[in-house]
Amino acid sequence: MTKSPAPLRRPAVARTLKALDRTIAGFRRKHETVALVPTMGALHAGHLALVRRARRAADRVVVSIFVNPAQFAPSEDFASYPRRLAADVSALAEARADLVWAPDAKVMYPAGFATRVAPEGPALAGLEDKYRPHFFGGVATVVAKLFGQVRPDIAVFGQKDYQQLKVVTRLAADLDLRVKIIGLPTVREKDGLALSSRNLYLSPEERGRAPVLHRVLAECADKIAAGRPIKATLESGAKALARAGFVLDYLEARNAETLAPARSVKDGPIRLLVAARLGTTRLIDNIAV
Questions:
Q1: At the fourth CATH level, which superfamily is domain 12-184?
Q2: Which strand (E) or helix (H) includes residue 212?
Q3: What pLDDT does 4 receive?
Q4: Is 44 a known ligand-binding residue?
Q5: Active-site residue among 31, 47, 134, 214?
Q6: Per the annotation, does 163 bind a ligand?
Q7: For residue 61, is pLDDT > 50?
Q8: 47 is catalytic
Q9: At what angle do helices 85-94 and 45-57 cross, to 10 degrees?
């Protein structure tokens, strides 16, 4: 007689710093390593891949779920950003997370909060920062707080937000935060579209066109790798995206480590980065050359 599988253990959920400290202290008493996966919730397969990578890297996995108001401009989608904590916790049980850190804004930014992190270096590369100048200050501030609250040995981020990954890596190094940053390759749909919580905003017709973004990016990477001039290749790619109905913010070739502009393959290793709107939805992606 075969045994039925053991029921999944739902991760504990901490909503206060006191509850978080109590649980983390329990891990540390057992000399267990801790990995953190910071998220804003509305979890998809890409997030769960980060959790599984964290599980391989540490004894315990903490997933933070916090829609951070500090990284949204007044004109952006903070109020409508999808929030579904119960479904997220169920998904994290499947991925074997140990703890969900889900504070509200009053816990993260209590009355009198007056300190913010102002990152430079990769945060001022003229990519996301050009179109969302508030963004990386909000990201750096909340990530610094999360690292201080959870005190992880490891933190796992996706490469889809490539500039953000570089900003966080620089933040941890510059502030001696004693956390190892792991970047995980972008998880994609079968048609190449990078997984994103904002994909939920796409209409069915827009969803059908959305994979063109990655397709054009991959074609540009192939041409540059084959020796075609970077400037002409990106200009051709921008025209292809416009024909597909995208409104382009940027399509850039950058040094993969410094994010400095790359004008030839000699400026490599090269990363192509793109951001464009399809209808009201802003999509980003990147690829190595």
A1: HUPs (3.40.50.620)
A2: helix 212-225
A3: 47
A4: yes
A5: 47
A6: no
A7: yes
A8: yes
A9: 50
Q: pLDDT tens across 262-278, in order?
A: 999 999 899 999 999 99
CB-based contacts of 127: which residues, under 8 Å, 6+ apart? Answer: 163, 250, 252, 254, 259, 273, 275
- For the stretch 150-153, contacts whose Cβ atoms lie closer than 8 Å and that sit 24 or more positions apart, written own/partner, are 150/20, 150/24, 150/34, 150/36, 150/62, 150/64, 150/101, 151/24, 151/34, 152/34, 152/35, 152/36, 152/58, 152/62, 152/179, 153/33, 153/34, 153/35, 153/58, 153/178, 153/179, 153/180
CATH superfamily membership of 197-288: Pantoate-beta-alanine ligase, C-terminal domain (3.30.1300.10)
Report how far residue 116's alpha carbon sits from residue 134's, in angstroms, rounded to the nearest whole number.
Answer: 11
Strand partners, 83: none
Under 8 Å between Cβ of 247 and 229: no
Q: Where are the domains of the chain?
A: 12-184, 197-288
148 is in an annotated binding site: no
Q: Does 149 carry a binding-site annotation?
A: no
Whole-angstrom distance, CA of residue 212 vs CA of residue 265: 24
DSSP-based three-state secondary structure for 139: helix
